[in-house]
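Re: that backbone. Tokens:
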């Protein structure tokens, strides 16, 4: 079963990397799917686009600020909802996560277009925050739920307010949960295609949309798409490998409560 799971998940990834070193003719030749005569033309085609590094910067800049602002707003909100039983507020946040993002694109575009914001970094950051804040809140709520109340009560006895106890005691202890929320939020923002396709402009285009540029009306440059997809995927794989323990500990926080 382990081998089956590994092959199922890693098979497409390995095929993508192999295809990035093939010509379009070899990619579409199904008679020899594993034959590889490596070429670098696809990567040269991708990096030959002078704006490609700008697309990398746009993806990183939008993801960075969307994650930072979402954590600044989401972590205190998660603490309040966890400690003061704010179930109605938690339900509202959950509803925001459940609503399909695509259903909001038309009203978002209408509002932001009238404000003159379409094509700016700000509109992309706001659209990503709509998804990232609920993710941060629910991950951190589970983390705060798993922390003993005695820690906070000891701080209150020593003269701290609830805000002081949160800032001096609970926040330093919640670093693994914050790291988990930050990593998962960054991955979503980095990979998001739908919002970027509609709301970005020529100067704020992100990597997923840049990959889509290799699809034209008459043809599809599969080799360049695979090369661009490989380049876009590598940072996420590296982050996931080095931060695996934080992701596991954060996602399982609260699972053994009680």
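Recovered sequence:
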């Amino acid at each position: 079963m382990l081998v089956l799971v590994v092959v199922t998940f890693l098979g497409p990834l390995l095929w993508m990397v192999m295809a990035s070193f093939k010509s379009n003719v070899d990619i579409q030749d199904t008679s020899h799917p594993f034959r590889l005569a490596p070429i670098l033309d696809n990567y040269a085609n991708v990096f030959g686009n002078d704006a490609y590094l700008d697309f990398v910067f746009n993806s990183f800049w939008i993801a960075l600020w969307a994650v930072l602002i979402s954590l600044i707003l989401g972590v205190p909100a998660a603490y309040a909802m966890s400690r003061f039983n704010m179930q109605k507020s938690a339900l509202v946040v959950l509803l925001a996560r459940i609503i399909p993002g695509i259903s909001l694109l038309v009203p978002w575009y209408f509002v932001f277009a009238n404000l003159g914001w379409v094509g700016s970094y700000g509109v992309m950051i706001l659209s990503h925050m709509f998804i990232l804040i609920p993710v941060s809140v629910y991950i951190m709520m589970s983390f705060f739920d798993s922390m003993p109340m005695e820690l906070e009560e000891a701080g209150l006895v020593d003269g701290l307010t609830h805000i002081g106890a949160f800032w001096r005691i609970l926040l330093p202890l919640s670093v693994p949960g914050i790291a988990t929320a930050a990593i998962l939020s960054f991955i979503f923002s980095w990979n998001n295609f739908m919002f970027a396709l509609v709301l970005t402009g020529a100067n704020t285009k992100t990597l997923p949309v840049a990959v889509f540029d290799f699809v034209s009306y008459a043809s599809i440059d599969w080799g360049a798409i695979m090369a661009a997809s490989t380049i876009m995927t590598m940072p996420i794989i590296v982050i996931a490998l080095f931060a695996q323990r934080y992701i596991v500990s954060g996602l399982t926080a609260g699972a053994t409560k009680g």
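The chain has a mean pLDDT of 84. The domain at 50-252 is CATH 1.10.3720.10 (MetI-like fold).
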